[in-house]
Amino acid sequence: MQVFQNETFDAERALYGVHSAQVINCEFAGAVDGESALKECSNIQIDNCRFLLRYPLWHLHGGSMKGSVMTDSCRAAMWYDKDFTIENSKIGGIKAVRECDNTLLKNCDISSEEFGWFCRKMQIENSKLISVYPFLQSRDLEIDGLNMQAKYSFQYVENVTIKNSVLDTKDAFWHSKNVKVIDSVVKGEYLAWYSENLHLIRCKIIGTQPLCYAKGLVLEDCTTEYCDLAFEYSDVKADIKGSIVSVKNPRSGYIRAGAIGEIILDEHQAADGTCKITTVK
């Protein structure tokens, strides 16, 4: 296995096409401002490195990165990679991970707009994420212990499981399919409109006008806060512990809550509406 250690690289494609190599305590920076340092590589082990240049890890097949830093200037850092593990690292720069397969991130601190677009089989464990538009059209995601601050998150995702997380977001899960969220806090506005088969288990849901126009929506033992005008035109099966501010024109299924501040069934409700709404102590 080749070893690159204690070096600085700034040329374009500095380590292009390297296979079975260790890159240790290196920095990718300098006046030449070269791009695509580790493009078309495989079986690469990156330890304690710093990346300041653009597009460093593209078309990488197999490997890992540990204890490393990608700064804000390291844009579009990882695209089209397969079978890559990232641990104990800081990831910055816009569009950090895109079109990647089988990616594992553990104990990472991520700050990246448009993070994780069009990815497949991504796992995230015990990490932090600051973003604007993360996870667009990604699928087969497994997330456990994510602390996220974002806006338009998880739009058009499919086959996602999220556990033990805090999602401080805005228009999350729009047009999503087959998503399960367990033991988590979901804070946002207009949560999960147009979603299909969203399943929320023991979650705290915070914010206005959640869960409208949804199909196959299930809530088990969830609590709500500031949730008004909820479930409009939704097919829903909801068991809510405690109270909800208001429910408006649900389409079908049932809603059971400890208390409901207002039930709005007006002239705009669906003609075929059959949803049963009850309060249960």
Q: How would you characterize this protein structure?
A:
The structure is a single chain. 0% of the residues lie in helices and 51% in strands. The chain is mainly β and 281 residues long. The strands form two sheets. The protein has an eight-stranded parallel barrel. The protein has a three-stranded parallel beta sheet with strand order 7-10-13, with no helix packed on it. The chain is elongated and about 70 Å long. The mean pLDDT is 97.
The SS-based structural class is: mainly beta
Instruction: Tell me the overall shape.
Output: elongated
Main β-sheet description = 8 strands, parallel, barrel
Unreliable segments of 5+ consecutive residues:
none
**Count of distinct strands:** 27
Distance between the first and last residues' Cα: 66 Å
DSSP helix fraction: under 10%
- Structure annotation, total helices: 0
What value does the Rg take, in angstroms?
Answer: 22 Å
The ordered string of helix (H) and strand (E) elements is: EEEEEEEEEEEEEEEEEEEEEEEEEEE
